[in-house]
Amino acid sequence: MRIIAGKLKGKKLLLPSDNTTRPLRDLVKESIFNLITHSNKINFKIENSNILDLFSGTGSFGLECLSRGANHVTFFENYLPAINILKKNIQQTKLENSCKLHTQDCFTFFEEEKKNHNYDLIFMDPPFKESRVSTLIEMIKDKNILKKNGVIIIHRHKSDQLMINMSITVIDQRKYGISKITVGI
Predict the structure, then answer these.
(1) Which one, of 69, 63, 61, lies nearest residue 90 by Cα?
(2) Residue-number span of the structural domain to which 124 is assigned
(3) How far, in Å, CA of 146 to CA of 8, rounded?
(4) pLDDT for 52-111, tens place per residue?
(5) Per-residue pLDDT tens for 12-25?
(6) Does 58 map to a domain?
(7) Is 38 helix (H, G, I), strand (E, B) or coil?
(8) Could you give the 3-state DSSP secondary structure of residue 117?
(9) Nearest 5°: CA angle at 64, between 177 and 124?
(10) Is 172 part of a structural domain of the chain?
(11) Which residue among 53, 54, 87, 125 has its CA within the 20 to 30 Å range from the CA of 181?
C-alpha cells in the first residue's frame, strides 16, 4: 500500500499484521480520486479542503488527501492495532500538524458532540459487517457535519444493500472487485 499522487507520491504505508483491518486497495483508492477529480457530476476540489475519515484503519485515504493538497484530516479509528499503525503512518509521512486522531467510536462521539465541525469531504469505510451506516449518515446530516456543498463517499461490499434515505443524494455508484463506492452530496 502506498500514496498514489501528490507531494508524498510513492511513499509506502504500513499495514496491520492481522486480518481484522481491511485496508483500502490502491486500485479502489485511485478510482475514487479519479472520480472526485474528473467527474462533471461532482464539484469538489481537494486543495485546502477539510476531510473527515471515518473508520480510518491505516489512514491511507486521509493521508492520500493530505498528499494531494488537503488542508486537514480528522481520523476516527477505535481498533487498537489499527490505531497503532495509523499513528506510525502519520509520523512517517510527517503530517502530524495536519491531522487529528480520535480513538473513540464515531457513533458515540457524534451523539455527544455539540459543536458543528464542517467538512468538505467525508469518507466512510466501516467494516463490511457494520449495519448502522444509515444511522451514521443521519447523524452527519442532522449535526451539519458535512458542509452544504460537501461530498460523502461510502465504501461497502458490492453486495451490500445500503438503504440511503433522502438525507443525501446519491450522484454516483460504482463497483470495483468486491468494493462498492457510493458518492453522495
Answers:
(1) 63
(2) 26-144
(3) 27
(4) 999 999 999 999 999 999 999 999 999 999 999 999 999 999 999 999 999 988 888 888
(5) 999 888 777 777 88
(6) yes
(7) helix
(8) coil
(9) 60
(10) no
(11) 87
Amino acid letter, 68: R
CB contact at 8 A, 22 and 33: no
Helical segments of the chain, H only: 26-38, 60-67, 80-93, 106-112, 133-142
Q: How many domains does the chain have?
A: 1
Domain membership flag for residue 15: no
Domain membership of residue 153 (yes or no) is: no
Most confident of 64-73, 106-115, 133-142, 150-159: 64-73
Length of the chain: 185
Residue 154, H or E segment: strand 146-157
**Contact of 185 with 137, CB cutoff 8 Å:** no
Q: What angle do CA 33, 163, 125 make, to 5 degrees?
A: 35
Mean pLDDT along residues 123-150 = 88
Query: Among the listed ranges 30-34, 99-103, 112-116, 165-169, which one has the minimum average pLDDT value?
Result: 112-116
pLDDT at 102: 94
Residue with grid cell 485496508, as numbered in its chain: 23
